[in-house]
What does this fold into?
Amino acid sequence: MPPQKWKRTHSRRGAPWTRAEMRQLGRTPDSVLAKRTRRSIKEVVAMRESVRVRMETGPRRWSMREIKLLGKFTDAELSRRLARPYEDVRRQRLELHIPALRPWKGRPWKRSEEKLLGVLSDVEVARRVKRSETAVQLHRCILGIAKLGAKNRDWTAAEEKLLGTAPDADIAARLGRGVGGVATRRQKLGIPPKDHLPNRPWTAAEERLLGTMKDRVVARRLGRTVASVRGRRHTLGLPSSGGPPRYFTAREDRLIGTASDQEIARKLGREPGSVRYRRLTLGRPAISNSGMHWKPEEDRWLGKKSDAEVAELTERTLSAVKTRRLQLGITKPDSKVRPFTTEEERLLGTAGDKDIARRIGRTWKAVEARRIKLKIPKFDGVLHLWKPEEDSLLGTMPDKILARQLGLSLRSVSKRRQRLGIPVKWSGLGPWRPEEDLLLGTAPDGEIAEQLGRHLSQVCVRRQKLGIPNYYWEKRIGRVRKFAGRDWCADS
It folds into this structure.
């Protein structure tokens, strides 16, 4: 037998991965997949770890190298790196008494603290043991301790025997429990209800009854639910009443879309849902009564008749009638609300809302709502009422000087000027005049700044730029200084 020739295979290292190869990651051993795809094992491992696909491995003994990694990484990270189940890593760490990388900082529950659960309310227990209410509630549920004052009581064997022998409402009334609690317990035990019938196939005789009468009548005769009868009838494509199905005629199709679905259904003697489905099939837009313009005679009915009567007369929805009445500011005919008069509206904002309400015989909430709707500011005894002559001074001088003249705060003057859209007056940004330079150094900089209406820093910078010493320095040294043809002296 001639020797078999060795066949050389070309490496696919660096080639793009196909979908079939990506599906085998984690399912096929890395060495086998590397051989099949003609790649290196390192390339297969790198791709599998980059897409976060863990390699499923069977149970194996822990090596010393793996044990040394316990506690240096989180259990989840070490589980991913070692390709071991998370519970296996956590169990091995706990058996070796190795602390976790991020140990739990909570304090364990004491027996004396657990004795309080169910005896006191969760809020009281949380306050006593200095824990959160959520932590107390969670630990109580873990221990299976009922909440204080809970009406739940354990089910006895005699009570469980009654489940399913009668309707849930009768069992609940007999046992003094809620209907929901009885139904939940019955479902948990897998007991069918009293009137429950197992799913049984439909016979030909039962299907012949479908569509001959109402669904609830058929359900009562056959001992089935209404939903089951309706679903079977829809599956067979039968109408809801007896007789052959009624198809839309050409004349009826021309009417669809000319008015609302409810109006067309009333004219044709059909269901609104049937008309709506036919309109959508024909691809025609909906027509709503709410989009119709209100006529003057229809507006005169608002407030004189009830909204339901107006809706029936105008063939509109109740919400459309209510919206139109509120837009016109018309109250209901049986409403006890009376509209505000002109004299009452003039009083709004001149005093407190409660005082105005007491004066005109209304609730202060109604007065407040009306004042807000008219955009009248709230009355404040401390609030300054601006006069026209005061408004004319805004912007003619800096806000600080005007606030000092009027005896107001700088913030109130600034807000009033901004509300009226008046630009600010920055006198400190103007050029220095000779008479202002002559005042520098004759008094403290604060007094000079207040006298000139400039900022203190501007006065200090100007004085230092001109080489004028500080007023207190000259007073302490007593030196005379020549400046601009004038003698500067502390005694002057």
